[in-house]
Design a protein that fits this description.
Layout (H helix, E strand, L loop, with lengths): L3 H6 L3 E3 L5 E4 L10 E4 L2 H9 L6 H17 L7 H13 L6 H13 L5 H31 L7 E4 L16 H8 L5 E5 L6 H12 L3 E5 L4 H7 L4 E4 L3 E3 L4 E4 L2 H10 L4 E4 L5 E2 L16 H4 L18 E4 L6 E3 L4 E2 L3 H8 L7
The structure holds 5-S-methyl-1-O-phosphono-5-thio-D-ribulose.
Length: about 350
């Protein structure tokens, strides 16, 4: 167990005073707490691609800080905006599914369109901090909105990690649980492992346990029987991209949880900040799903490889159909099906037909 002093030192991502993007290396958790300082485009790309920093809002914030750090290093004689755009495209290509990454890069670029380096740097500094602070505020509001959907003593199933480590303060899907704990709620949380990279076992269980929340680790495949037993009152997940019709991309296995929840009449709630909603994607069919290396399934967490020589399919995300989702909880409020209408109304968009 980590001491409370250890836990206080933990942060997901920040801009260090000496001009680096600083992250906790999540691939080492929960066994080792190590912070990394990133200064080159390649190291920021690598950290996002290898999931040293992960979770949709957190990779957006990392890219925003990264753009500022990289902008400072652009030579004075270069075409500043062109070079910054190239670096932004490079960072976006590190992971394709979470829209927060491109959202943050585009926000940084639009803050300095037409500016030279000297004028751009203070604006970029302001913008990346604004993205970070906005995320903190959104996480808090999401946590408050989510808490209104559950009651003290409820059993909650969660998939992957949508907590502090995936965003800024509170996170999204774990936000109501962390805020609820502060307010004296006693939830009984079941964290599924989340194969193959074990974000549930390594990160969610770590976060909740150290926050003093009653958390029980289960294999992904135990979720269905738990729902049948009546121990689960609601499922809480984060997400990487919400399409205009309410289809939601999140960690692989999310869809199985949602299908099971529907069968057992357990509410299935998705939590996200507005930076995760992509009105340019009409439906989940438009969302690019990242595929990752077979070694993550066969080798990474085993002392000997399983299934040597056998081909593998390792999608990092799946799309949960809008019909399976009881509500989408954002910082602005709670949307219900049909989401094409409720999301458009809440965010003042034209409904996508
Ligand atoms: O591959 P990961 O660990 O980046 O996947 C993360 C998730 O799927 C989270 O649920 C999602 O990004 C929401 S985080 C607030």
């Amino acid at each position: 167990m980590f001491t409370s002093t250890d836990m206080e030192k933990i942060f997901t991502v920040r801009l260090s005073e000496d001009g680096h993007v600083e992250i906790i290396d999540q691939t080492l958790l929960p066994n080792e707490v190590k912070f990394l300082k990133l200064k080159t485009a390649e190291s920021i790309y690598e950290a996002i691609h290898e999931l040293r920093v992960r979770g949709a809002p957190a990779i957006g914030i990392t890219a925003a800080f990264g753009m500022y750090v990289l902008a400072r290093q652009i030579p004075d004689n270069a075409d500043f905006y062109k070079e910054l755009s190239r670096l932004g495209e490079y960072l976006i290509s590190s992971r394709p599914t979470a829209v927060n990454l491109s959202f943050a890069v585009k926000k940084m670029l639009s803050a300095v369109e037409g500016c030279g380096k000297e004028a751009a740097l203070p604006r970029l500094y302001e913008e990346c901090n604004a993205i970070y602070n906005e995320d903190r505020k959104m996480c808090r509001a999401i946590a408050e909105n989510g808490l209104s959907l559950v009651k003290d003593g409820d059993g909650i199933l969660t998939h992957c990690n949508a907590g502090v480590l995936a965003a800024s303060e509170y996170g999204t899907g774990l936000g109501p649980l962390l805020l609820g704990k502060e307010l004296g709620y006693n939830f009984k949380v079941y964290s599924d492992e989340t194969r193959p990279l074990l974000q549930g076992a390594r990160l969610t269980a770590f976060e909740l346990f150290n926050a003093g929340i009653d958390v029980t680790l289960i294999c992904d495949s135990a979720a269905s029987m738990l729902m049948k037993s009546g121990k689960i009152n609601a499922c809480f997940v984060g997400c990487d991209r919400v399409a205009a019709n309410g289809d939601v991309a999140n960690k692989i296995g999310t869809r199985s949880v949602a299908v099971n929840a529907k069968y057992h009449s357990v509410p299935f709630y998705v939590f996200c900040p507005s930076s995760t909603i992509d009105f340019n994607c009409k439906s989940g069919d438009d969302i690019v799903i990242e595929e990752r290396s077979p070694e993550e399934i066969t080798t990474k967490f085993f002392s000997k490889p399983t299934a040597p020589g056998v081909k593998c399919f390792n999608p990092a995300f799946d799309v949960t159909d809008a019909e399976l989702i009881t509500a989408i909880i954002t910082e602005k409020g709670i949307c219900r099906y049909p989401y094409s209408a409720s999301l458009a109304e809440l965010f003042g968009h034209q409904e996508v037909k």
